[in-house]
Amino acid sequence: MSSSASPPSSISSHSSDVENEAASVFNLRRLLKETLRVFVSDGRIFLGTFMGTDQLLNILLVNTEEYRLASDTESEPSGRFVGQVMIPWRLVTQVEAPGAKLRELGNGGTTSENRRTLYI
Amino acid sequence: MDPYTDLPGGDNFYDVTAVFEEAARDMQPGGILLAKDFSLMDAMAAFEIGEPRFDSGMSTGEDATLSFNPLTPMLPEEICWILDRSLACEMEWHTGYTLSQTVFSFLYVHHLRDIDPDFISGDRAQRTDESPRELVTVVLRAWILGLLKCCDLAWREMNKGNIFDAEDWQSEKCDIPIAEAFPVKYVTMKLDEACHWLLSSYRVQSPWQEAIIHRLTLRKTLLELLELQLSHGYSKLSPLVDTARSLLQGIRSNTLRDPPLGSPAYLAFDPQFARRLVSYVPLHVHQLPSQDHAWGVLAGILDSLGEVGSLAGTSSISTWEIVGHMRTWAPLANRELPYIRSSTQSAFYDGTLILDRYPFKHILNCFFIETIDISYDAIAAELTSRWTSSESLPLAQIERGLTQLMIAHVKALWYSRPRRRRHCMKSLFDWHELYAFFEDIHSRLTPKSGYDLITHAQSAILLHRLSTIREVILSGLQLSLYSTEERVFAYWYLAQILEQHLACLDNIMSSVSQGTNVFQELKLQSAFLTALQLMSTAVFSVTIKQLSFSWQRMRLNFLRRYKWAFLPEYDDVDLPPVGHPNFLKFVTACAAIPQSEHHSPAGCVQLAKDILLCSLRFPPGMAGQWGGDRVQFIQTLVGVCDGLQALPATMEEVATFDVSTLKWDPEAQPWFPSIAGDLSH
């Protein structure tokens, strides 16, 4: 974790809790209010603002758009606004965050360039 | 977004799945991580993905949409079948389902641009002599434009506020255009072009050529009808309705066979498509009914539009009331569709003129002329000449109050039944307030001995209030609202209200010239209500055995059921309301009637039947061309009387009568029971 990185003001800051929590949880906390791209097992992709999760990793997103990969005959992108959703972890196949945030976390990862090949 | 090269959100995303997994390992069981200002309560509002009751986009494993190609060549018979089934989708929307469950499951609706002949290159679609491309790009496209435009015109009518979204109809368009931007003229031109292509093309032969042309012409006629209704062209509705009826009859007489299994025509409909649309709560997949059912709904719309045209040409408000009552008491199949109920209300009053041609005064004139045979001008003149107070005569207040009440009263006749009942209950205080206001004015007039015109005018208001109370009770029976115990009270109360109603009618009839239309109407109403009172009394005296609750519990129940009569607003009016329910009187009646030696339930029913049969010979009164409907309804009531002949002849026999044989079925008869096993009913 970068030493220059401090918790964003938007994040819930019960200071004593935050100080005592594990680095992994702190890393996750820093993703709050970031745009996440969540892939689920039935082929849909959810793009929304991450607002919270629990120990079971039910992911809460707001202002979410739902996408499904377009069929051969569809020329329009098949996205729709679904608002506030909760995605259970059992359905999640992958979670992605914007690159800038990931670099702050100091965590390498698979870029979507690699994953994209799955859909070509 | 290019689906082949990009993912939604772009390329600058990195996998953080591990971040989640590591955090989950280190979090306490039950631990939660929420953004600032986002509470657990906010989180509760989220829809759960993967939960079929909430996740409207969940995959069901079947995706017909993926295999649908809008440019697949179709045979004429397949096109004809698609036209019919898409009309079935439209009719289902009219019956109250959402567009996403019905019209939007017709996949071509989402591919209008893909089948636009101006944007298709020659090699994109196969051409064969049997399946010419124009069948899709010219014929089917014109039909879809017509279908969507019809939906748009009906949507505009239903969105006027006469009926209620999500209660009577579903307005949600899910961000899908329904030809809002296309003028009707453009769409009719496209339909004409399609007919012209069919006539000039050698590739579509008889009988499919005629079949498709008939359907396109029917669509064009429907389009013209809906546009005429929206622009208040009621006088021109009738010939167009006749044309549409005759086309429909021709189409229905030739039943189409379904295409063979494997036909691409089946792919044109995907009932699961709603999960791709913007909707927050998933809707169940709606299976389209048979084509004959769809034609039946369309026939209902056409008949109803014809009736709207006839009603719009009827200036008598009483006739409107009679038709409204007939349609409520004895609903006809496919005649209560939300579009029709909205159109009828629009025809009566659309915010500017009554019946699109009369000022508000027409309501006042009709109200008094058709109830007491005195014009409003005569009443106003009498009030002015006898006014003694130093204050100015509040005529404007009377006019405004009565006009608003009557407009709402007539329009409410075409509300859904539960909403109409609520409207009636709410309006009762307004009627009482108006009645009390008239009484106050009356007290400030020069006294007059003998015939007093103002007393009769006041009776007209009371008469409408009493009939509104009657409707509240009857609608409760029709909606099966009452419990067994409540039903006993309802029949007793109905008989009481009708007693006061009949007294009021007698009072008015004494001053109306015999032979006038108004007198005939009052006489018929008097006979009808007398029969109704006798039947109510008979059923009350038999069902009294079903009272099993304590009086205390009955009273609590009574106060809740008749809460409209105990509103605190009544305390602000000096004059006590007429016709309100009285529980103590009911208790007394319950104690007295079993002791009565002269009361005969079967005798009451027989007398009611005789009166009804006699009333069938009366002139139609104010019913106009709907006199036949009223006769038919009275004949149905005669049948009910026949079915109740087996009721006990005396109150002694009531003790041994098996009340459980009385069966209520509002579908068969809205108000009265039949005796199970009785073959005469």
Summarize it.
Chain A is an alpha+beta fold and 120 residues long.
Explain the overall architecture.
- Chain B: This is Mak10-domain-containing protein.
- The complex is a heterodimer of chains A (120) and B (681).
- Chain A is of the alpha+beta class.
- Chain A has a single domain, classed as SH3 type barrels, CATH 2.30.30.100.
- Chain A has helices at residues 15-20, 23-29, 99-105, 112-116; strands at 35-40, 44-54, 59-68, 78-87, 92-98.
- Chain A has a 5-stranded antiparallel β-sheet.
- The radius of gyration of chain A is 16 Å and the shape is globular.
- The termini of chain A are far apart.
- The relative contact order of chain A is 0.18.
- With 681 residues, chain B is mainly alpha-helical.
- Chain B is built from 22 helices and 5 strands.
- In chain B, helix 8 packs parallel to helix 10 (338-348), helix 17 (517-543) runs antiparallel to helix 20 (601-615) and helix 20 (601-615) packs antiparallel against helix 21.
- Chain B is globular.
- The interface between A and B is large, with 82 and 57 residues.
- Strand 5 of chain A pairs antiparallel with strand 1 of chain B, so a sheet runs across the interface.
